[in-house]
UniProtKB/TrEMBL annotation:
The lineage of its organism: Bacteria, Pseudomonadati, Bacteroidota, Sphingobacteriia, Sphingobacteriales. Residues 1-25 are annotated as: Disordered. Residues 16-25 have a biased composition (Basic and acidic residues). It comes from Pedobacter montanisoli. It comes from the Bacteria. This is Uncharacterized protein.
Length: 135
């Protein structure tokens, strides 16, 4: 699955995109992740304890994304990033992680009780970030 498919054709050249290039979007993402940390950890623990997955993945984006389920909506919370909950299994099913790369991914995956695994999607592409939960 390509990032354009995940973004649902979101405005690649929109007014908002140009403003965000002045300051890295990761600055606002870090602020939002700190704000969201307690809620994200609660969802991660639910995914783990209910046996849904051993590898929860959270998607951070500023557009509509066809992956996972919305748990924190930026418009409702007056923040910059929406967070959706997903799993390694869904990422494999959707072709974002190829089945032959599963073991490599898991080798690099950090303890989900200490870190949130965030798949950050921006118009330029997407990448994984492991963000520590506050102690």
């Amino acid at each position: 699955m390509e990032s354009e498919e995940l973004l649902n054709g979101a405005g690649q050249n929109g007014q908002q995109d140009r403003k965000e290039k002045k300051e890295s979007p990761l600055v606002s993402l870090e602020k939002d992740l700190a704000f969201y940390a307690e809620s994200v950890k609660e969802v991660a623990m639910d995914i783990l304890t209910e046996g849904i997955s051993t590898a929860p993945i959270f998607i951070a984006h500023q557009h509509e994304v066809k992956l996972g389920e919305v748990i924190l909506n930026r418009e409702e919370l007056n923040t910059n990033w929406t967070i959706q909950a997903s799993t390694l299994e869904e990422f494999i099913e959707k072709g974002i992680i190829k089945p032959e790369k599963k073991e490599h991914f898991l080798k690099n995956y950090k303890n989900p009780q200490d870190f949130m695994c965030v798949f950050v999607i921006v118009p330029e592409g997407a990448n994984y970030v492991f963000y520590p939960y506050p102690k």
